Amino acid sequence: MKDSLKRSDYLANLGKDIPAGLVVFFVALPLCLGISLASGAPLFSGIVTGIVGGVLVAWLSGSQLSVSGPAAGLTVIVLNGIETLGSFEAFLLAVVIAGFLQLILGFVKAGVIGLYFPSSVIRGMLAAIGLILILKQIPHFLGADEDFFGEMQFFQPDGRTTFSELTYAFSRIQLGALIIGALSLGTILAWDSPVMKRNKFLKLIPGALVAVVLAIGVNYYFINFMPELAVTTSHLVNLPVIEGFGDLKDELQFLTLDQLSNPSLYIVAFTIAIVASLETLLSVEATDKLDPHKRRSNTNRELKAQGVGNMVAGLLGGLPMTAVIVRSSTNVAAGGQTKVSGFVHGIFLALSVFLLAGLMNQIPLSALAAVLLVVGFKLTKPALYKSQFKLGHEQFIPFVVTVLAILFTDLLVGICVGLAVGVFYILKANYKSPYFYHKEEYKDKEVIRIKLSEHVSFLNKASIILTLDHLPSNSHVIIDGENSAFIDYDVLEAIQEFSKTAHERNIKVELLNVEEVSVMDIH
């Protein structure tokens, strides 16, 4: 579905978008700082990118719910890029060039690549991110992790792995952090209960906000009355304090042009552009799966938005950005409805730096870990694995392989492995039967008939989705599967999603001999 929300739609959803934006802010704040540290970049650079991603890119984006900012998946590229070019200022020029390249990718309509990611792989990515969030946040929840908040790779900066870190954490529990984490988790779960949701006033206040305020209060009590339980500085948010224009000027760094003749500059820029674009397309496709309204994002517009965002971030001294699935899934889980939630998160990031740094630096990371534990569970519910299993091995095997590959490597490597397995099953399905797809219109042009071929594979998905998205409003559409011996699940799901939302464009949909499937809800 096209992005066609009006100003009244944004205003009508403020009651949900503002609290959701606040929750995303609590998650994004330590992630921005942690990714800066892991990238070997100035601490403030991640905050700059988070602010640009929220305040600017949210409105330019092709997605209503996607949230942009610095990505953990780019830390190695940033670290190596700074080392290759010799300085962070030189690296900023590569970020600006990468943004320009993304802008070009958007104009040449490279965003169509996003339509070719199989649902099984995207769901595998979401489930894997959920598992990683849980496994990675447990050490922070226990107050025992010194790695940056938000690192996602299996092999960690301290030499341990995701699993060995758990063993280490349980032997180094910080009791105060654990108590605060448990209270925060209990508060968030209680706030999400049907009893609380029935209260018109309480449901407007995000449970994460209540949990964070409670965490600050409990730690303040520990500091004054039980100092042995007080959470140490290394397990609190650590924002740079900006008290004036002079401090801001000291924190910001700006690009230099002295590497323009260096071929390595363009290699780094090209690498950033390609990896950031792929991660963005993956994130947007996954966010569309989570969207309760099943809106389809304009991926070409998204690439342009990311391009502009990276150009601005580079000029202001920020890290490269992508659409980030952790922030985006948090946005959906918190009840975000429109771009306003992403914008609000950016505003809160700016306020936290300029007005609230002292208060923000009192937030225990164990409380924020509790927020991500809830988000992680919603992404990787047991029901998701059960549903995928019921779809058959053609869907389940790529799903499981994607989960395991991401869990034991990183996001992009895992996705490539999952895609390879998914493509194997696609090619296997297409080996015996060719496919075709054509559209017929009645003479009066009021009824559009889409007749599916004998074998409709995932390779037809992009063509079918694009055709459905461009059907004229106020029409009567008949999707006929009478001659189809096989219709791939991804295609059935796409047709089902179109059927459920077509009424918003005043399109009447009639399905003939097309199996009805349940569009999975993983909120």
UniProtKB/TrEMBL annotation:
| Main location, first listed in the record | membrane
Q: Write out the annotated subcellular location.
A: Membrane
Membrane-spanning ranges: 20-37, 43-60, 88-108, 115-135, 173-192, 204-223, 265-286, 307-326, 346-375, 396-427
Q: How does it sit in the membrane?
A: Multi-pass membrane protein
Q: Name one Pfam family in it.
A: Sulfate_transp
Domain of life, per lineage: Bacteria
Domain STAS: where? 437-523
Q: What are the UniProt keywords, alphabetically? A: Membrane, Transmembrane, Transmembrane helix
InterPro entries given in the database record: SLC26A/SulP_dom, SLC26A/SulP_fam, STAS_dom
User: PANTHER family per the record?
Assistant: SULFATE TRANSPORTER (PTHR11814)
Record's protein name: SulP family inorganic anion transporter
**What is the species of this protein?**
Pontibacter locisalis
